């Protein structure tokens, strides 16, 4: 089975792991969007996440979040007339569709300037729009304010907000374009060895360091942002694609598409410290620095894997749509977004949660229970499960989750509850349809 399609063109030319013929090289170079062959699969057991679906444009690939405005941007890689869908994160509705260039793939946001950058890959016909371009969008007006010529088949894009600099990985011309965000001009071009296929890029703003995956050679290049020079090349897995930086932990994560792994790299030493076994065809990665959690799109099973950054353990697998590609996290709302390329949709992944107010008091205390992350319309049952002689558990309240997955209900801590020896007592929220369970505690005083 052909697993990788660096753009839909490769499906037609049948590129798998075989050696490329001369006649197909230009076709391969003409496609920089990572798209896998999907087979959507449900999670094997309930996980504490709920996924909603937002229809977007054709073949969505890149996704980025502006946490300042609670806005999500999705690059729809339509041939010749690509678009960007603009989604209100509060309502999960498409509020605008912006016309950009041919086959947009990567998207990045500068929250300081409310500016969005989109790479136009021109994968199926690079001759029609040579060289590749980057569309610059004003986030306040959704207007394209500039089009910047870069290298051939631009794919990944990242922003250093501290220096107002944009970095673009040019898959087809084996280079990275450096753009001054203030003037929308290319100030430098960083060249790689021919046939390296730089695909995606990430920035560590604390160290002014840029990381670029080179798909063909299984390497990640490290670039000094101050001098635009390559300072190191790190061997990772086979066919590295997405890359992300956890600045808090000084770690870099790389999704290795063909070897079904995620490489963990120590930033100060540029050494691989771990290799995490992933689902088939990991494509893109995002990190929630607040929770030290990594999210990886698994193209073949149609899932997003959740990885604990402290332990490198996969803690959950969330079913989304067919062939998920780009993934992004809103660190303010802890919401995850994945672009389902073959489903023409955006998956909105919401962690399940239960909150209690107050969190302590005597037996018989009135409480309000709230949270989110349950299937819209399903019954959520809240149970007190400790400190009781008989029965061992009591239902505090039940309610139905709303369309945004949130819920709230009120009840009373059982008057017969006693402190016992177990300390804080468990409050369990369970979705009766999904089987999702999350818990918090109440302390008797």
Task: Give me the number of helical elements.
Answer: 2
Annotated CATH homologous superfamily of the largest domain: YVTN repeat-like/Quinoprotein amine dehydrogenase
The total strand number stands at 38
| Low-confidence runs of at least 5 consecutive residues | 1-44
Q: If you compute it from the alpha carbons, what radius of gyration comes out, rounded to the nearest whole angstrom?
A: 23 Å
- Principal-axes geometry comes out as elongated
* Sheet with most strands: strand arrangement: 32-38-37-34-35
The CATH topology of the largest domain is given as Methylamine Dehydrogenase, Chain H
- The CATH architecture of the largest domain can be named as 7 Propeller
Fraction in beta strands: over 45%
* CATH class annotation of the largest domain: Mainly Beta
Number of domains: 2
How helix-rich are the residues, as a percent range? under 10%
Please give the largest β-sheet. 5 strands, mixed
